[in-house]
Design a protein that fits this description.
heterodimer, A: alpha+beta, v583 fold, 5-stranded mixed β-sheet, 15 helices, 16 strands, B: alpha+beta, two-stranded parallel sheet, 3 helices
Chain lengths: 417, 68
């Protein structure tokens, strides 16, 4: 159908024209007004009630409620959550994204990415580092203390430094990161270093506290995944202008809440198409196994939606081994498979080891259903019990049912079913 | 002028002749068929193909109507 092809062309052109720039770090409640109107907790994935949340998600909710002062302790927070005292909505409904559990609340700092082409903003919290962290359901005193440090110490310094820099061009960092072995989901070593290289001189220029500066640089420099959250906000800033293009079959969001996987499709507006989330297949840290694993979770699949992560596996042979996807030489196969379900390649984000093939761009639900190949996602694996953290990394496929249901709905809307 | 049908078998072009000359084979679909020929030193090109929508007729019909 020509109108679908033209709509998808517009969707891909909008994606490729996106110009994401890191412009600030602000308090979430200042840019997401709904957060201040109720005890609202934004979470990863499509909508979900407290009763259907997985263990790590419930653990994170309890922790963030204590952090916000809405509960005296974790038990009190759990009771209040179960009694309906808190409201839950997806990050995606508020121009935001969050990794794993994806907690976003009013007083947390969020990084701001501006898409200079479309003028829209996207938000994501600051990456907490590895180990026991809230995104994996961690909620003890050490987790809350780190969140407080991010809010009171790192965020103001980052904000001042970013403003001093007049913005960090993220498209360039991603392009260079791909040539340095990152795929921006499970490997962000290069991009984290490149971002730090951009920010460090400005942090030094604006800082009046050498101890804090040292702590901040050490925190950012020791976290290989620091860029992940920046990359996620980049993805959200690029994809939001692609929403609501009539007749387009391009996927605008993929996300999971640990219970359901959901996708949104441009020509179908903001409707979610959901299916039970899959279990990742991967490698586990010493002492852990599949029996410990929580099902797939997080808004981080926004990076696959823009052609990175599992779609850019060919750029990152090292990650293929890390996520248990096979030999390094197999990495390119994943990217080639994803090319079959996408409308185009991104000429600005290319993979040297694949003769400068551009990353697959614009997931077309028709192609997914036609060839029977679901999107590949590289992901961290959380322990199913709250508070333990990451236990491995792996590969997971988006459930095919999300795409077949979306295709049927799209056919009805187009008047052919 | 030769009035015989164009596909009528003749001793030179019939099925038997097919197996008496070297073959150029394209195997469509299951890779196992191509692997079997390769294991017998027969030159074969495998074409990775599967029915649309994994053979689901309802989805294949919708895909056809949506131009895929």
């Amino acid at each position: 159908m020509e109108r679908i092809e033209l709509a998808n062309q517009k969707a891909v052109e909008t994606m490729l024209a996106g110009d994401p720039v890191l412009v600030d770090v602000v308090t979430a409640g200042d840019v997401i007004p709904a957060l201040t109107e109720a005890k609202l907790i934004l979470h990863a994935g499509p909508p979900i009630s407290w009763e259907r949340m997985c263990g790590p998600m419930q653990g994170a909710v309890a922790g963030i409620a204590v952090f916000e002062g809405w509960a005296t302790d974790l038990d009190d927070a759990t009771k209040k959550a179960a009694s309906g005292e808190f409201e839950f909505q997806p990050n995606h409904h508020h121009s935001a994204v969050g990794p794993m559990t994806g907690m976003t609340t009013r007083s947390q700092p969020v990084m701001v990415v501006l898409n200079r082409t479309s003028g829209n903003h996207a938000y994501c919290c600051i990456n907490e580092g590895l180990g026991k962290v809230m995104r994996f359901g961690g909620n003890d005193a050490s987790v809350l203390q780190r969140l407080a440090w991010l809010k009171d110490a790192l965020a103001p310094l980052m904000s001042a430094a970013i403003k001093h820099s007049e913005g960090i061009n993220l498209k360039n960092i991603v392009a260079r990161g791909l040539t340095m072995g990152d795929e921006m989901h499970q490997r962000n070593v290069a991009c984290s270093g490149l971002l730090l290289r951009e920010l460090a001189p400005h942090m030094a220029a604006v800082s009046t506290d050498s101890k804090l500066l040292s702590e901040a640089l050490r925190f950012m420099g020791s976290n290989d995944q620091f860029f992940l959250n920046v990359g996620m906000a980049t993805g959200k800033a690029i994809m939001d202008p692609v929403r609501d293009i009539a007749h387009s079959t391009v996927v605008t969001a993929m996300s999971r809440n640990g219970t359901d996987f959901g996708i949104r499709v441009s020509g179908l507006g903001d409707q979610w198409f959901t299916a039970p989330v899959e279990m990742p297949e991967g490698l586990y840290f010493p002492g852990f196994s599949e029996a410990d694993a929580n099902p797939d979770m997080g808004d981080s699949t926004i990076v696959e939606t823009i052609g990175l992560g599992g779609f850019a596996m060919g750029a990152s042979p090292a990650v293929a081994g890390f996520v248990g996807a096979g030999a390094a030489s197999d990495a390119a196969i994943f990217t080639k498979d994803m090319s079959e379900i996408c409308c185009a390649e991104n000429p600005e984000w290319s993979i040297p080891g694949m003769d400068y093939l551009g990353v697959p761009t614009g997931i077309d639900i028709r192609r997914v259903v036609d060839v029977g190949v679901a999107p590949t996602i590289n992901t961290g694996i959380a322990h199913k019990k709250p508070g333990i953290g990451q236990v491995g990394a792996g590969v997971v496929r988006a459930p095919m049912r999300c795409f077949t249901d979306a295709l049927r709905a799209f056919a009805v809307k187009e008047g052919v079913a | 002028m030769d009035k015989s049908p164009p596909h009528e078998s003749s001793p030179e072009s019939g099925p038997r002749a097919l197996f008496e000359q070297s073959l150029d084979i394209i195997s469509v679909g299951l890779e196992g068929f191509a692997d079997e020929l390769s294991s017998q030193q027969v030159q074969v090109t495998h074409l990775d193909w599967r029915p649309p929508a994994e053979g689901d007729p309802e989805l294949a019909d919708l895909l056809s109507k949506l131009g895929s």
